[in-house]
Amino acid sequence: MSEPILQVRDLVKHFPVTRGVVFRRTIGHVRAVDGVSLDLHPGETLGVVGESGCGKSTLAQVLMRLTPPTSGTATFEGQDLFAKRGADLTAWRRDMQIVLQDPYTSLNPRKTVGDVVGEPFDIHPEVAPKGDRRRRVQELLEVVGLNPEHIRRYPHQFSGGQRQRIGIARALALRPKVIVCDEPVSALDVSIQAQVLNLLSDLQREFGLAYLFIAHDLGVVRHLCDRVAVMYLGSIVETGTAEEIYTRASHPYTQALLSSVPVPDPSLRGRREAIRLEGDVPSPADPPSGCRFRTRCPKAAPVCAEDPPALEVRDGTDHPAACHFAAPPHLVRAD
Amino acid sequence: MTVAASHLLEVEDLHVEFGQGRDTASVLNGVGYHVDEGETLAVLGESGSGKSVTAQTVMGILDTPPGRITGGSVRFRGEELLGADPERRRMLRGESMAMIFQDALSALNPVYSVGFQIAEQFRFRRGMSRKDAMARAAEMLDLVRIPNAKQRVREYPHQFSGGMRQRAMIAMSLALDPELLIADEPTTALDVTVQAQIMELLDELRRERGMGLILITHDLGVVAEVADRIAVMYAGRIVEHTDAATLYAHPGHPYTRGLMDSVPRVDDVAGAALRPIPGLPPSLSAIPPGCPFHPRCAHAEDVCAAEVPLLRELGGDHQAACHFAERFVAEDPDRPTTHEVVSR
Amino acid sequence: MTEPLLAARPADTEPEPEPDAAEVSGLWTDAWRQLRRRPLFWVASVIILVLLVMAFFPSLFTSIDPRATDLAGSGSEPGPDAIFGRDLQGHDVFARAVYGAGPTLAVGVLATLGTVLVGALAGLLGGFRGGWQDSLLSRFAEIFAGLPFVLGGIVILTTFNPPGQPVPESRLIFQVVTTITVLSWPIAMRIMRAATITAKQQDYVKAARALGAGPLRIVFRHILPNTLAPVLVYATIQLGAFIGAEATLSFLGIGLKDPVVSWGVMIAESQDRVAQIPHAILFPAGFLVVTVLAFVMLGDAVRDALDPRGR
Predict the structure, then answer these.
(1) Does the distance separating the beta carbons of A175 and C5 come in below 8 Å?
(2) Is the model's pLDDT at B336 over the cut of 60?
(3) Into how many domains does chain C fold?
């Protein structure tokens, strides 16, 4: 396999919890991201899945250099990502872009679509000469399937799916190598979501993009991603190829997650194995000792409370999982 | 008052408009469905299809203005509700029909304890003392499987997690033992593991209490797991209605089929292509003539732009509003009807 | 990175621009195009223009000396001699109202500008930077917000103008404006700060940062246009209030005083004789109402024009 374009090691992001207005004091830390390592190769899609509060969006923010990490390293094409400053940082931003979740708040309501998609060229004037920008913006709109004549319209004149396309055009403007997609389709209707997913696939093929695809919808991730990392309370609990995760998940959390996803096929009703987790995700400000999943885990044993399991390949499995009792799922269900 | 043969709830030819003059949006254009005791009717549709407006009209909580009910009928146990005395409708709400919403956090008042808000119903509609009402509220929380209900009854909404808030909402809606529960996207804001818990809870409660459940959702997976019958909505109309097994195996409307082809599934074989529906749903103030779906339909012919297809019976209690429904039900050409199940 | 995004594209598919698509477009040009179509804007502008002309060239509107007293005609009704009548001192009410436009508008407009500029800048800074800078500014603002207006006005103005000394008109106006600004900016700051914090958290700001936009660009291109609306509403309402505040200071004898005329001074002078000489208070009050209304209309029109969703 090629060298990873993005390499993340032991990334940690803690947010202080403060009290008081005049005299702020820190009373604890939210461990949003707590030791995440991952590799992203050129042209591939790495899915990061997890439920709300698992830290997947914080991971995106840190990797986009929107918020500083607490510790850990990341390299982009071999260069230290967190050491980049000034012109170096600005230049790097051309290579890595982000598509955000909410198509309603991610576009400035007071700017025309032309301004929104053209802003990357204002910030990086070296990419497109001034006279060329209008044409470039119109090309971008066409690439994402919008009418290039609508360059003077405002975001509110577009539907949610079209706005998401505008957001994608903006991310695409600087011809990045990596696009972080932070829940890009979760706010869209089913029929529109499929259009945007297909667009993302097409763009990947056309421009050789690598996607770090963050989502909570396991169906979407299955559809789009080559490899998958499953996050729970700030850590990756299982990682592997899409095939490995979706057919041979070995971490009890991944198994429960997969069995919780409703499948649109009534003939399977009652025939799929249901692993129902009890309760809710614990607060990331006060995570359980040892394995973070143990409080909801059907397999939990005393060792889980003491010894945090490493993310590694264990006997009987073919990909890394952070569970002392990692094992392939029970075989079977339907005929 | 109760007619023996009537359904628990029957909605017929409901029309609702918003706005005035040229901007008039026809939000509902003849919606009809019914639900009986102990069964689950799923109303499936994307945003703007009118699924929530129908529910609000049934509950009598549609804001008028801006909304305007311009025709149709809503009957609860045979009793006409549209045009009924507002006092009577208010009495029915909670006692006979109740509703839960997507956003449980904003549906709960942050300044009162969860128990207090549930107890209110017992105090004001059942005349219970404060103490008895709180005790009943704790029982309700216990019913929806909130652990330590006796302690948690005094806690405030912000102290509850998302899933627990939705449970509390369910407890509140079931307090007066309604016969019909309308759940409007009850799990959309929740994580999958919690969603599964809530859907199971709703299903159990429906069975135990024999109540009718209308589940409003956009999620084809959720629908497949719990619905007895399904009504698919598009542009303010029911475009297809049948039992769950038939709908998924033999969809009669190209929109239903398009939806199914658009959903990326966890049990998909790798690399399965999505076949999205092209285009966008119509603006409700400019619904295309003829079949509202024809501009996005791959099978549209001239008649589709000219004539509005009525919801017609295809046999076996399966109705679809498409001129060529029989063809789609019968042939179902290249679509794999069952996906491979995750097993090795 | 300069090759076209798409491989060769046949020339004939090159999209035609929309018919009205001018090369320049954006919030401000679109807003101006929108404004020009609003009758409300033109009505407000004409009124304000007339008032400004009146402020700078009062002699164009009346040849009567506003300071000339005709004690014999004290309190006389409007008539051919004095179209708005005379006040208790026998001043011509119309002439005084015309000559009062200048100081009144100067105080109202400048105090509004001062309040909004100082407040908005502080709010923008505090809201955008957050942290200790925000805390410091907010606490500072609370101190000023805690000062009672009248007491604060008395302290400031008597400190700079010991009683009994004559003060030049322009200096007095400047002092009154400063006093009002110093005592009122915290409210503008709070409004701006809240709007800034809301705008800062929007995803479009995040997207701009991800593109490498610097703080200035984020503040001026993304945050400011989305925070103007509430400040504009506040400013147009405050304009009237500030003209009233000026009257309060005048009534206490520490604001504008003879020979400077202002509508506030006129209203203050005549208010205890409303029953006997109603016209002496009605006419300046009428001028005041029309002025405030014109600015409110202007603010409304500008706010609407700056919101693309309203078009």
Answers:
(1) yes
(2) no
(3) 1
- In this predicted structure, what is the pLDDT of residue A121? 92
Report pLDDT for B301. 87
* Closest chain B residue to the Cα of A146, Cα to Cα: B279
- Confirm whether C274 is domain-assigned: yes
Question: 3-class DSSP state for residue B69?
Answer: strand
Closest CA of chain A from B275, distance in Å = 7
Classify residue B122 by burial, with Cβ atoms within 10 Å: 0-12, 13-18, 19+: buried
Q: Using an 8 Å CB-CB cutoff, list chain A residues near C17.
A: 149
Quick one: which of C4, C33, C13 has its CA closest to A148? C13
Adjacency order of strands within the sheet including B40-44? B97-100, B180-184, B212-217, B40-44, B229-234, B237-243, B319-320, B312-313
Burial C190-215 (b: 16+ CB within 10 A, else e): bbbbebbbebbebbbbbbbbbbbbee
CB contact under 8 A, C25 and A112: yes
Chain C touches chain A, with at least 3 Cβ pairs below 8 Å, answer yes
Q: What is the DSSP letter of C75?
A: T
Cβ C291 vs Cβ C105: under 8 Å: yes
**8 Å CB contact between B47 and A189:** yes
| Residues in chain C where the model's pLDDT stays below 70 | 1-26, 163-165, 258, 310-311
- Coil vs helix vs strand at A114: helix
Tell me the pLDDT band of B216, cut-offs 50, 70 and 90: very high
Q: For residue B343, is pLDDT > 50?
A: no
C partners (3+ CB pairs within 8 A) are A
CA C146, C148, C150: angle at the middle one, nearest 5? Answer: 155
Hey, how many other C-beta atoms are within 10 angstroms of the C-beta on C10? Answer: 6
3-state helix, strand, coil in chain B (%, to 5): 35, 20, 40
Q: At residue B194, does pLDDT exceed 50? A: yes
Q: Quickly tell me which residue has 């009669």 as its tokens.
A: B252
- Nearest residue of A to residue C202 by CA position? A105
pLDDT for A129: 83
Measured in residues, chain A has a length of: 335
Strands B97-100 and B229-234 come out as: unpaired
Residues in chain C: 311
pLDDT at B244 over 60: yes
User: Residue A70 has what pLDDT?
Assistant: 94
Q: Structural domains in chain B?
A: 9-234 (3.40.50.300), 237-331 (no CATH)
Residue C17: predicted pLDDT: 38
Q: Are B290 and B308 in contact (CB under 8 A)?
A: yes
The list of chain A residues with pLDDT below 70 reads 1, 20-24, 330-335
pLDDT value for A226: 92
Q: Kindly report each contact of residues C267-273 with a partner whose C-beta sits within 8 Å and lies 24 or more positions away, as own/partner.
A: C269/C87, C269/C88, C270/C87, C270/C88, C273/C75, C273/C88
**Domain assignment of residue C203, given as a range:** 43-62+87-310
C168 lies in some domain: yes
Tens of pLDDT, residues B251-289: 989 999 999 888 888 877 666 678 888 888 888 888 889
Closest Cβ opposite residue A152 in set C21, C203, C309 = C21
Question: A129 — contact with chain C (CB < 8 Å)?
Answer: yes
Q: Are strands B212-217 and B40-44 parallel, antiparallel or unpaired?
A: parallel
* CATH code of residue C93: 1.10.3720.10
Model pLDDT, residue B265: 84
Q: Are A254 and A230 in contact (CB under 8 A)?
A: yes
Residue C11 resides in a domain: no
Reported ipTM: 0.82
pLDDT at position A51, please? 87
Partner residues linked to B194 by β-bridges: none
Q: What is the dihedral of CA A256, A262, A264, A266, to 10 degrees?
A: 90
Look at residue C34 and tell me if it is in a domain.
no
Q: Which residues contact C264 (CB under 8 A, 6 or more apart)?
A: C104, C107, C243, C244, C246, C247, C248, C250, C255, C256, C288
